[in-house]
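Dear colleague,

Following up on Tuesday's group meeting, I ran the structure prediction for the two-component complex that the binding team flagged. I've pasted the input sequences exactly as they went in, so you can double-check that nothing got truncated or mislabelled along the way. The structure tokens for the whole assembly follow below. Feel free to forward this to whoever is handling the docking comparison.

Inputs:
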Amino acid sequence: MAASAKAVHAALAAWRRALGTENVLTDGDVLGRAATATFPTTQKVIAILRPARREEVQQCLRIAQRHGTPVYPVSGGRNWGYGSRVPPEGGCAILDLARLDGIRDFDERLGHVTVEPGVTFGKLFAFLQARTARLFLSVPGSGPEASVIGNAVERGDATGPQGDRFAHVCGLEVVLPTGELVHTGFARFDGARAARVARWGVGPSLDGLFSQSNLGVVTAMTVWLTPRPGHFELAFLAITDGEKLPALVDALQQLRMEGTIRGTFALWNDYKALSLCGGYPWEAAGGVTPLPEALLERTRAETGFGRWNGTIGLYAASRAQGLADRARVEEVLLSRVDVLAWDDRAPGVAWEDLDARGPGLGVPHERSVAGMYWRKRQGATATEPATATLTSFTASAELSRREPRATETETETATARGTLTPTLSRTRERETEGAIDPERDGCGYLWCTPAVPFVGGEVDSVLALCEEAIGGAGFEPQIAVVFASERLALVCAAIVWDRAAEGDDARAMACHDALLARLIGGGYLPFRLGVQSMAALPAGSDDTAELLRRIKALLDPRGILAPGRYAPSPVIESPRDHGE
Amino acid sequence: MAASAKAVHAALAAWRRALGTENVLTDGDVLGRAATATFPTTQKVIAILRPARREEVQQCLRIAQRHGTPVYPVSGGRNWGYGSRVPPEGGCAILDLARLDGIRDFDERLGHVTVEPGVTFGKLFAFLQARTARLFLSVPGSGPEASVIGNAVERGDATGPQGDRFAHVCGLEVVLPTGELVHTGFARFDGARAARVARWGVGPSLDGLFSQSNLGVVTAMTVWLTPRPGHFELAFLAITDGEKLPALVDALQQLRMEGTIRGTFALWNDYKALSLCGGYPWEAAGGVTPLPEALLERTRAETGFGRWNGTIGLYAASRAQGLADRARVEEVLLSRVDVLAWDDRAPGVAWEDLDARGPGLGVPHERSVAGMYWRKRQGATATEPATATLTSFTASAELSRREPRATETETETATARGTLTPTLSRTRERETEGAIDPERDGCGYLWCTPAVPFVGGEVDSVLALCEEAIGGAGFEPQIAVVFASERLALVCAAIVWDRAAEGDDARAMACHDALLARLIGGGYLPFRLGVQSMAALPAGSDDTAELLRRIKALLDPRGILAPGRYAPSPVIESPRDHGE
């Protein structure tokens, strides 16, 4: 529910006084870009507020509360496929937290760092690299410019030991919708020595309230880091026949459950794997979509990918531990896969080797983001190193099932052979033109992400449903299954299209909504929601929804913080303008 | 704030109608025992309510809300050293949840079980044993009759892979103080397939609100289980000189951080270790307390314990993994310890071997509880097997630092040689006389439990402070340091006395309060509070305490649920009797 024009006018004036005119953006082009996602949206944005300090965030919220003018906090804005920076409801000012980019505290021995919302994965990587720290932070697929706090509070995933990000953070500093300030865990007590090492504190634990919610703005957070392993083993595995998937998933669950695999890892289908190497093979396909089955098979053969593919990192302290883990993986997996190849480069994990082995060791990359350009005729956008890392692993004809061996860093790929559309390196371009920008470039991208028990048969049937629904709508289903814990598989199914292609926007949205409804109907609830789908959750038969409504009304009496975000029925005080 | 006599009378009548007269206990002896802790308390209990089903819990709370008569939920009541079953404020009815003892659901493959509050560690162990399940549940020191849910919601610790219990549960079913029903995570959606395998669900995560709180009664919870390892290595380590402690702690932190040690483990000081073997050596000490230094040293030599001692379990899938982990532990620890001995019995971990290797593999035991009888002249109370397990490890003269080898199950112990007071086996007695009962037996026991960063120097100085304060008051400090995560040490310092010894009650309380205040003043906040100390926390300089007060007032308008529990300033509606 938008505020009155008079209230907006008064709020803008107050925000300008608080932040300076230069930090309250109302230029039409700027607002238009902020209101653009990777799928159609109609919400308008009234301003972009750019506070630089926590106190300014508090002021912004007090002003919003006073005038009833809603704000929508954005850290890095890389909420790609879920709505980017676009608020679920129109009439919001975007509270852009990028200028709060301090790294407040760092402890190498205990492995923790305290960051503000503007700290990106790229910035934190550079920070650790500059110190040649013996630590890394597991990275998500959203690239080097994604916010660490954004990833955590949205409960995003990442590759490696701390893949369940929100389980590895503590000490949140939170500004409530009223402008009040709270801290979670021991951080609420001045000088508490365990504030950055303990999750729970003493008394009720509040962290969860501020994840996937609209109950507060997180302005700082302690993030736990992982020691770089003394010995790192990285496996690439593939199956050529989808029939083998259930047994493979069950075997992987056994390895995860028993602790041989200790971090988050993923399987990708062929479409997802191909999208990491290059763009849609327009030429080979004669300009036709969707991708013909024969061409898919040909490209798969060229790249060395299977029907399902994955990488698994094994993190050990000693060489003996690493080799014992590797032997155990082989014992369990060899009979289940067609390819099991080990990357034997640089087991010592020096900083200079990281680029080539990066994603599992905390090197931010854009290879997943590049996949959003799949259907763009101008070619995919990606940095070369990430692509080379992946394809080096998969394109080698020498990969052997029974005799895992080293693979080469530089090998010919399908893109070089010309089937996939060549990947453009934008590294140089970006210096003059700005970062990768799927919204500007008209990439169509939508996630549908059900949570599924880590059981072969069940994962398989959900994947079949997703592939069928997305393929049936004329798109190539790009799917990753993220094994987020010993018991949980997060199916991340993307619908990818070119927003310039006539009719595809509408077809993609309809496909997404029908698939989401079907998954929810089957008991496969999404673990994360796009801004367009906040009302898609069923009511539930207990009093939880009502409790959430009451808590929202308690913390945010006028409903000014991110209305509609993970809260389909916000409680808003009866509309009136308090004046200033 | 107690309700009026009229309100209590009306509430009792309503509770009787709801539960049947036989399930509303008001007998003076019964109430007196329920109001007895292991330290002096003055709170009176007005009744014990014994609902058998969740719907009856809801009725009990609605009645309480209607009449303003507070209730205090108790699952197993083994909150020993923190107040047992005694409410922080007088005038409560105890809501005894022991009759809700259903095991609702069990999945061996995914390793989860859904239990009600009356399910104890002993019951769950028997359940798994009866199925020869390939799973176990890490156990705390509070014995086989402690409640699994009680341990989790109080955020207690345990030994082994899931030592941070509350991080390994999901899908809480919670009755709110108003009688409403909520579920956490995906469990709020009927038929959600991931309800028992995913922690967060979608939207704000509420679990934390219902731990260490008075915001709801948890009537069911899914608990994650650990696979029994294919290969299990168990080490006993000791240092004879306290000066070596900081370096040892730092080495242990390295092993935990790098992932060689993957579960919760502990170090115990000599007093704690001795208390696990037998009672105070009254005869050798000539009836004098505290324990003379020379006698401590003699007993330590006889038992084989060092100044600081510990066991570490290594959980592996294959023998090669287990041996590689063991070699890594030796590489890091050998130069830091005086004893490092490996238990080489039964690496296969068959059910029939568990008793002998139990605590790290989920076998509930009473050896810590037996330590509460330390100062009782009638002798300690314990079951033999647990004691034998420990002492077999420590009393052997053949323990070797450089050549770890198997130790014998049955060896002579200091108790057998006569220095410590012999341990009485109550296994047979209990069949006729009831369970171990420190409250009935006048055991004095109080915990003081600061959270400390897992850093040698810092742990060492907190331990010194605790030993000095407790020793200075004339008691033997029984201290365990529980390494709860890669970064966090929980110092569990117990004051142990005989409540029949004149003046000791007062001296122990004063010692506890002074130590707690001193620790808090130094930034070492407790991670758990006894019912007598709920007001000991500082206010904090932000709005967190106020937020907690508001949430309490929202969920519990009349303040009838566990008033004062982790909430020193409960908000209670202005006193009035609504009548019935």
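The mean pLDDT of chain A is 88.

Cheers,
M.
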